Structure formats: structure tokens, C-alpha cells
Amino acid sequence: MENMTTLINEIIKFRNERDWEQFHNSKDLAVALSVEASELLELFLWKENEDFNIDKLKEELADVLMYALLLANKHDLDIHEIILDKIRKNAEKYPVDKSRGNATKYNEL
Ligand SMILES: [Mg+2]
After folding, report:
1. What string of DSSP letters covers 15-34?
2. What is the mean pLDDT of each run of 10 residues along the chain (109 residues)?
3. CB within 8 A of 1, min separation 6: which ones?
4. If you measure from the C-alpha of residue 93 to the centroid of ligand 1, how many angstroms do you get, rounded to a whole number?
5. Model pTM?
6. Do residues 109 and 102 make contact, with C-beta atoms less than 8 angstroms apart?
7. In terms of CB atoms within 10 Å, which of 8, 18, 48, 98 comes out highest?
8. CA 23 / ligand 1 centre spacing (Å)
9. Residue 70, helix vs strand vs coil
């Protein structure tokens, strides 16, 4: 948790030094996150499954994570708490006995 706070503070510091908070409304942070997720996807486009550049993967993944953290921070969300809540919900949707080794969506289990 300490590390996560340090990380978020580094991102906020970078942003504030450039006076970019004015551009970071919820909609644009969500759009930017999706654009970065698409840049990540592009690394795999027209290639075999594991044929991607690991350095570019690190960069695009970092971009996605930074926008996700900025969006969570904007709404004072606790990353640890929202992820654990979602894991609990997913565990209810995907009981181990029905979903183990099975990639079927929960509504078709
Ligand atoms: Mg990028």
C-alpha cells in the first residue's frame, strides 16, 4: 500500500509540474486509458501470439496503469479495496466448481 501511494504521488507530481490536471476530467481519463489499451493491443496486431516487443509492452502497460490510477485518484478510490471487491464479485459469478478450466462466460455456465 505504501508503494502504491508513492507511485500515485509520482504520477500526480509529473502531472502537476506540467499543469495538466485541467485536462484530466473523468471522461478524458477514461478515453485516454482506452487509447493506451489500444496501443497495447497494436503490439500484437498481425503477429503470432507471443511475438511482441517486451520493452514496448512495458511502456504501453505503464500508460494504461497510469491512466487507471489517475482516474481512481480523481474519485478518491482505494485501489486495493476496489480490486478486492471485484475479485469477490467475480468469485460469486465464477464458482470454482463450475468455472475451473472453463473459459465460458458466467451467464452461460
Ligand atoms: Mg502509449
Report:
1. HHHTT-GGG--HHHHHHHHH
2. 88 98 98 98 94 96 98 96 98 94 86
3. 80
4. 32
5. 0.90
6. yes
7. 8
8. 17
9. helix
| Beta strands per DSSP E along the chain | none
How remote is the CA of residue 29 from the centroid of ligand 1, in Å? 13
| Structure confidence at residue 1 (pLDDT) | 62
The rounded Å distance from CA 37 to ligand 1 centre is: 8
Which one, of 53, 70, 68, 75, lies nearest residue 13 by Cα? 70
Please report how many Cα atoms fall inside a 13 Å half-sphere around the Cα of residue 20, on the Cβ side. 12
Cβ atoms of 60 and 81 within 8 Å: the answer is no
Which residue matches cell numbers 503470432? 48
Find the 60 Cα to ligand 1 centroid distance in Å: 5
Distance from the alpha carbon of residue 59 to the mean position of ligand 1, in angstroms: 7
Per-residue H/E/C for 48-66: CCCCCCHHHHHHHHHHHHH
